[in-house]
Design a protein that fits this description.
With about 300 residues, the chain is α+β, with helices and mostly antiparallel strands. It has 8 helices and 12 strands. Helix 1 packs antiparallel against helix 2 and helix 3 crosses helix 4.
Length: about 300
C-alpha cells in the first residue's frame, strides 16, 4: 500500500472542523484546491478529471446548470473539497465525521437541492447520516464502487478476433448512440450533452473501439485526459447482445496499455461491486483495489 493510500478514518478525536468556502468560480477553486487535489491523484480522480473537463470545455460541459465548488480550510491549509455539476450528486473528498457534520450545516444553509452524494465509503456514509439528521431526508445506498489501479498489465486470453481502433469523426453517430445506451445501462439519465462529450473525446483520441474483422465496432473503452499523472478508464461498454465474447476485456487492455505507454503514472477505473463479472475481469487484466466508494441518494 502506498503512503497516500492509507485509509482515512471518518471518526476521531473531536476538533474544529474549519471553515467551508463555496464558489462558482472554477479558476479560483483550482488555484486554492489544486495542490490538495494533486496530492492524492488516485483518490481525487473524479475531482481532477471533472474540473479539467470544465476548464477545457466550458462550465456547461456536464449540464446546463452552473457547477459549484467548495473547500474546507483549517489552519491555513485545505483539508477537504467538494464539487457538484447539477443535477448530479455532490462529490466529496475524504472527510471526518466532524467535517461531514459541518459540511451538512454549510450546504443546508445554502438551501440548494441535493440529490445525493458520492465519496469514499466512510466519507459518503458520514455525510449521508449528517444530511439525514439535519434535513430529515430519506437516505438510500444506491451503489457500492471500488477504485482500481493498474499493476502488471495482462491481456486476457483468448483474444477475440478483430482489432482495436481509436474512434474518429466518422464514428460520431455510433459514439452518441453508445454513450446514451451506456448511461441507461448504469441507471443514469440520458445525457443532454452527448454531442459535446463525443466531440471532446474525438478531439483527444479518448475512445477506442474493438472492431470485428469486417470493421464493425463491437465494444468501446474510453479514457479521461491525463491530469496530475493519472488517467481513468471510462466508460467501458459492450451492447448486450455482444457480451461474453471477450470484447470488453480486449479493448480495456488496449486503452490501459496505450495510457501507460503515453506516460500515465497511474491508470485507474471504477467498478460497481454488484457486478462480479466486471470486477473479476479487471483483476485478470491487472487492476488492483485502491479504495471502496459509495453513492447515496437523498429524497424528502
Amino acid at each position: 500500500m502506498r503512503p497516500d493510500d492509507r485509509p482515512r478514518a471518518a471518526t476521531g478525536r473531536p476538533r474544529a472542523a474549519g471553515t467551508w468556502h463555496r464558489t462558482e468560480d472554477l479558476d479560483a477553486f483550482i488555484a486554492r484546491a489544486g495542490d490538495f487535489l494533486r496530492s492524492r491523484p488516485a483518490h481525487h480522480t473524479l475531482a481532477l478529471t471533472v474540473t479539467e473537463g470544465l476548464r477545457t470545455r466550458g462550465p456547461h460541459a456536464y449540464g446546463d446548470e452552473q457547477p459549484v465548488f467548495g473547500l474546507l480550510e483549517r489552519e491555513g491549509a485545505i483539508r477537504a473539497a467538494y464539487f457538484q455539476t447539477p443535477p448530479r450528486r455532490l462529490q466529496l473528498t475524504a472527510l471526518t465525521t466532524e467535517e461531514a457534520d459541518s459540511l451538512a450545516a454549510h450546504l443546508a444553509e445554502v438551501g440548494r437541492p441535493l440529490p445525493g452524494v458520492g465519496a469514499d465509503r466512510e466519507a459518503a456514509a458520514a455525510f449521508a447520516e449528517a444530511w439525514r439528521a439535519r434535513t430529515g431526508a430519506d437516505v438510500t445506498l444506491e451503489e457500492r464502487q471500488r477504485l482500481y489501479r493498474l499493476g502488471t498489465l495482462t491481456v486476457p486470453e483468448p483474444v477475440p478476433e478483430g482489432r482495436a481502433r481509436v474512434a474518429a469523426e466518422p464514428d460520431r453517430s455510433q459514439l452518441v448512440c453508445w454513450h446514451g445506451e451506456f448511461a441507461e445501462a448504469v441507471g443514469e439519465r440520458a445525457p443532454a450533452n452527448a454531442d459535446a462529450w463525443v466531440d471532446a473525446r474525438i478531439a483527444y483520441g479518448g475512445v477506442t473501439f474493438w472492431e470485428s474483422p469486417d470493421g464493425t465496432p463491437v465494444s468501446m473503452a474510453g479514457v479521461t485526459p491525463t491530469v496530475a499523472g493519472q488517467v481513468r478508464v471510462a466508460p467501458v461498454y459492450t451492447p448486450a447482445h455482444l457480451r461474453g465474447r471477450g470484447y470488453a476485456g480486449a479493448v480495456t487492455a488496449e486503452v490501459s496499455r496505450a495510457a501507460r505507454e503515453a506516460g500515465a503514472d497511474e491508470v485507474l477505473l471504477f467498478t460497481d461491486l454488484a457486478n462480479p463479472t466486471s470486477n473479476a475481469l479487471y483483476q485478470r487484466i491487472g487492476y488492483r483495489p485502491v479504495a471502496d466508494f459509495a453513492v447515496y441518494g437523498f429524497s424528502q
